[in-house]
Amino acid sequence: MTERLVILHRGIMPPNAEDIERLADTVYATEEELPLLLPGADAVFCWHSITHAVAESWPEDPALAPGWVHVAAAGVEPLLFPALVGNPDVVLTNSRGVYDGAIAEYVLGLILALAKDFPGTWEHQRRREWRPRDSERIGGRTALVWGTGPIGRAVARMLRVVGMRVTGVGRTARADDPDFGTVHDRQSLAVALAGADYVILAAPLTSDTRCMVDTSVLAAMKPGARLVNVGRGALVDEEELVRHLADGRLAGAALDVFAQEPLPAASPLWDMPGVIVSPHTAGEVTGWRADLADLFLDNLRRRTEGRPLRNTVDKDKGYVRERMPVTS
To answer: Where is the signal peptide (predicted)?
Structure first.
């Protein structure tokens, strides 16, 4: 029987929509239309990923709930609402793997921009000011990557290539990780922070990681260190970050994600020296939408053929625990 699929969108459709429509009885819904179209659907594709519309439209009768929800993103926190998490018949999948290389390149670019003060150079160019000055090397500097999933691992490999020393922070301490070498747990975190020139956040947002970078973590960071966040904005206590940046203890930050997006115009982060603000675009490179759509199409084929889905999320943990080998 052909499945009834609802694709949640904001005006931009998946580039492979015709291929999707060949496999499923497909309807398209805006956030406003979703409450009428979601009940009774077999599957939902959240093509517009950062939304609470699914939670707000979820049917009270479990018999009308879709059996599969896929999100065109790595993060799934807007979908971890009780009715979905608590229903064992609902499978949640994400787009883990699509963004890894792009975000790793972005992190390298941010670190270079901070070390070489490219924002200052561009500002001097804008003012037609000739100001020679020294910059910093990144070779030999230490990067602590907080989050040992696929994105964190891609970041670690990228930074090692350019000569940085890399360690990680994860749930379990170990000394022989293939990408990080040493992985610290929370018990040894203070030691790791004290030796890191750059702290890169690539962890998922869960109940355990929300506001994990609080005043104690910021105070434990090496004086003159910099924070790079390509994970989720809510990983960081932004008020405390502003305070530690303002007093000069930290040299700067590069932030692609924020607790509130878009970042409010009144936020002091916009104008702070040494801070780079970007609009949640670290993974958005040429062709990224096609990659997201192709991953969903592959999963739709798998579901139609009764094969295991890629990127099944552990709904209690909030992330994919193991990467499933990709096979044709």
So the answer is: none
Return the pLDDT at 326. 42
CA distance 68 to 51: 17
pLDDT at res. 327: 41
Selecting among 280, 284, 289, 302, the annotated active-site residue is 280
CA–CA separation, 72 and 94 (whole Å): 6
Domain ranges of the chain: 3-98+287-305, 100-277
Number of H helices, E strands in the chain: 11, 13
Asked if 261 is an active-site residue, the reply is yes
Residue 299 pLDDT: 98
- In this structure, the number of other CB atoms found within 10 A of the CB of residue 53 comes to 21
| Paired strand residues for 28 | 7
Q: What is the pLDDT of residue 322?
A: 62
Q: What is residue 126's three-state secondary structure?
A: helix
Query: Among 3.40.50.1820, 3.40.640.10, 3.40.50.720, 3.30.9.100, what is the CATH number of 3-98+287-305?
Result: 3.40.50.720
CA dist 226 to 146, 270, 322, 325, Å?
13, 16, 31, 35
Q: Decide which of 3.40.640.10, 3.40.630.30, 3.90.930.60, 3.40.50.720 is the CATH code for 100-277.
A: 3.40.50.720
Choose, from 9, 96, 184, 232, the residue flagged as catalytic.
Answer: 232
Q: What is the per-residue pLDDT for 94?
A: 97
Q: Tokens 């790793």 label which residue? A: 104
pLDDT averaged over consecutive 10-residue blocks of the chain (328 residues)?
Answer: 90 96 97 97 93 96 97 95 97 97 98 97 97 97 97 98 98 96 96 98 95 98 98 98 97 98 98 97 96 98 96 95 50
Q: Is the peptide bond before 262 cis (omega within 30 degrees of 0)?
A: yes
Q: 21, 56, 123, 261: which one is catalytic?
A: 261
Known catalytic residue: 31? no
